[in-house]
Amino acid sequence: MRKELIESLLCEVIGPREGAVERIGSNPYKEYLTGVIIPKRFGTSERNPDSELTVTPGEETDADGEGEVNENSFSMSELDPTSKPRSFGMSFMIHGASAEIEICATWGRYKRVKDGDESYWQREPNFSVQKIAIDGNPRCQRINLFKGAGQISIQVRNKVQPDGNTVVTILMVNDLDPIPGSDKDQAILAECTIYQPSLRVIISKNSTLVSMPTIYDEGRLSFLYRNKPILARGFICAAIWREIEYANKIKNSIHWPDGLTSPDCKRFFDCDARTEFVPLYAQPSPDLNNVDGVPPISAESLSEMWEPDDIDERLGPLVRRYERWVRENRNISETEKDTDARNEMKSLVDLQEVSLVRMREGIEVLKNDIDARLAFCFANKVIAQQFSWNERRKDPSTKKVFNWYPYQIAFFLINVEPICNKGSKERETLDLLWVPTGGGKTETYMALMAFTMAYRRRHAIRTKNGDGRGTAIITRYTLRLLTVQQFRRTMRMITAAEWLRNLHNSCGTYGWLPQKCTVDDPWVYGSVRFSCGLWVGTDVTPNHLRKKNGAIDALKGLASEGEPAQLTRCPVCDSILSVTGKGLEEKRDHVIYWAVETSMDQVEVARSLNGEKFDNVH
Questions:
Q1: How far is CA 387 from the centre of its chain?
Q2: Spatial distance between the Cα atoms of 68 and 76, rounded to a whole number of angstroms
Q3: Which residues of 270-299 are buried (b: 16+ CB within 10 A; e: fewer)?
Q4: Are 241 and 92 in contact (CB under 8 A)?
C-alpha cells in the first residue's frame, strides 16, 4: 500500500501521470505543483537587498552563451516564494582535483494542440548527455542543451578546496524566450516552461563522492550526525546519492519516465547523484517499547496510582532503568579516545543526568502535592477514556488498553515540577519531543494539557483563589490543515476531560476520582466546563461571528469567509454534528440526531394539526 501511495503522490504533484509523451486536457502549469521551471527572463522582480547572490539571476557576461563564463555570472534562482524557480541544480564534492563526470539532463515541454473541437496539451520529452572533464583549474562552463527560441543550458562550476577535494556545482537554467503575452496568460507561459526536469551524474571510476562540509561541522550536531555523511546538496530541489537511493522501489515509468525514452539515458538509472523535487527518505520506526526492566505502563493503572508506595512501584522501574542507561553512557564516554568526540559525549551525558534529576523531582512532586497527584491521575484517566471511546467505536467488544511508551512517561515526569512550580528554573528550558510520525507525540502533549488544566482547577479550589478558569493552553501549528486535524484530536481529549469533570460520584460530589482518593469538594475540578476554541484564518474559519460573511451567515447558508463547522462529527460516537457546504460523505451510512427545543403548547398544536400521538414528551 505504501508503494502505491508514493507512486500516486509522485504522479499527482510532479507528473507526468501518463508517461513521457502524455496528453492532458488541462494546463500543466496549473496541474503540477513542483518541478516547474519558468524562463529566467520572464517578468521582472526587484533585487532582494538581503540576497547573498553577487549577481542578479540571469545576468551573463559572455556574448554568445558558449564555453566558459565568468564565475560571478553563475545563475542561481532567488528563493522567492511568490514565483516559480528559473533554475535548479546540485553540488557535490569529489575526491581529488581531477575526474570525468557524465551528466544526463532530461526535461519535458508541453505544447497546446487544437484538433478541431478538441484542445489538449501534448508532452514532448527531451534529453542531453554531456561529458565534463574536471581538473585542478577552477572554472565555470555553460553548455547549451537546446537551441531554438532561446536556450536551455547547464552551468558547471568546479573549485578545488583546501583539503585537495573538488566541489562541483551543476545548474540547469531555463533561458527560453518568454512568449509575448505570457506575463498575462498562464496558458502562454506554460509553453515556454520546462517540466519534470532531472540532472543525473555518473563519476568516473578514478574518483568518488566524499562528504561535503555542513553548517554543523563542529560541535554537537556534527557528533550526532557523524555516521550520516552528506554527499550532495540540492538547489531549489533535493539531492539524492547512491547510499540513500530509493528509486528501485518505484516504477521507472513513474520515477523517471524520460529515462526510458533513449538507451543513452537508461544507464543513468544507476547514477552516483541526482536531483529530486519530491525527495523520499526511509526512516526506520524506532522500537519504543523494548526497554529491559520496564514493565508495561498503562494509562488506566496510572490513573489509580494514589499512595506513595504505588508511585514508587509503578514509576520506579522506569527511573532506575534510565539511570542505568545514563551510567552506561558515562562509561562509554570516558573510554572514547578522540578528544572532541569525548567532550561531546560527556556534554550529552550531562544533559541526560539533568533529565534524570528532573524525573525524580517530578515523582517527588507527585508524592508531596495532592493536587499534582490528582491532576496526574486525571490526565491518565482522560487518555485512557478517549482511547477506549475510539477503540470501542471500531469494535464494541474490544478490551484494548492504552499503554505508554517509556519515553512518554519520562517526558511527562520532567515537566511536572515546572508546571506546578511557577518559580522553577526549568521554565526557561524548551522541552521538545523529536520522534518520528506515529510515535506518540500527540498523546504525550495531550496528557500534559489535561494535567495542566486539572492542576489549575485543583490549585485554585484548594487555595480559594478563584476557580482556575481561563486559557490554560495555547497551541500553534504551522499548517492550516494540520491545525484543523489536531483540533479534532484535541477535542476528543477535551470531551473526555469534560465528561470526567461532570461524573457524579456516589458520595454526592461531581468529578472523577481515583478509588483511594478522599477529596470531597462539591465540584472536584470546578463548575466551569473544559472547552477548546479554534482560530485558523479567513480561508478556513470565519474571522467574525455576527459581521457580514461571518460564522452566522455561513450557518444560514450565505456567503462567508470560511467554514465554521470544523468539528463535523462527535469525538466519542462519530455521529454527525453538522453538515458542511460539501454535503454528506458518499457511500456511507449516516445517522443524524435532531435536538428540538419547544414548549408543551407547540406540542399540543402539532398534535391537533397532524393527528399524531406524542408519547413521553418532556
A1: 23
A2: 17
A3: ebbbbbbbbebeeeeeeeeeebeebeebbb
A4: yes
Tens-place pLDDT, residues 573-603: 888 877 766 777 787 777 777 777 766 666 5
Amino acid making up residue 81: P
Q: What is the DSSP string of 370-432?
A: HHHHHHHHHHHHHHHHHHHHHHHHH-TT-----EE-HHHHHHHHHHHHHHH-TT-GGGGS---
SS3 at position 439: coil
**Reported pTM:** 0.78
Residues 6+ apart with CB under 8 A from 225: 214, 216
Looking up cell 462567508 gives 560
**pLDDT tens digit sequence for 224-264:** 888 889 999 999 999 999 999 988 889 999 999 999 999 99
SS in 3 state form for 72-88? HHCCCCCCCCCCCCCEE
Identity of the amino acid at 10: L
In sequence order, the β-bridge partners of residue 147 are 151
Give me the phi and psi of 172, to 5 degrees please: -110, 125
The CA-atom distances, in angstroms, between 244 and each of 226, 258, 271, 284 are: 16, 22, 12, 13
- Residues sharing a CB contact under 8 Å with residue 11, sequence separation 6 or more, in sequence order: 17, 254
Task: Read off the C-alpha cell for 134.
Answer: 574536471
Helices then strands, each counted (H, E), the chain? 15, 16
| Amino acid identity at 101 | I
Query: Which residues does residue 569 pair with via DSSP β-bridges, in sequence order?
Result: 576
Task: Please answer whether residues 145 and 105 qualify as being in contact, where contact means their C-beta atoms are separated by less than 8 angstroms.
Answer: yes
Task: Answer for the pair 516, 529: CB distance below 8 angstroms, yes or no.
Answer: no
- Do 384 and 500 meet the contact criterion of CB atoms below 8 Å apart? no
Does residue 16 have a cis peptide bond before it, meaning omega lies within 30 degrees of 0?
yes
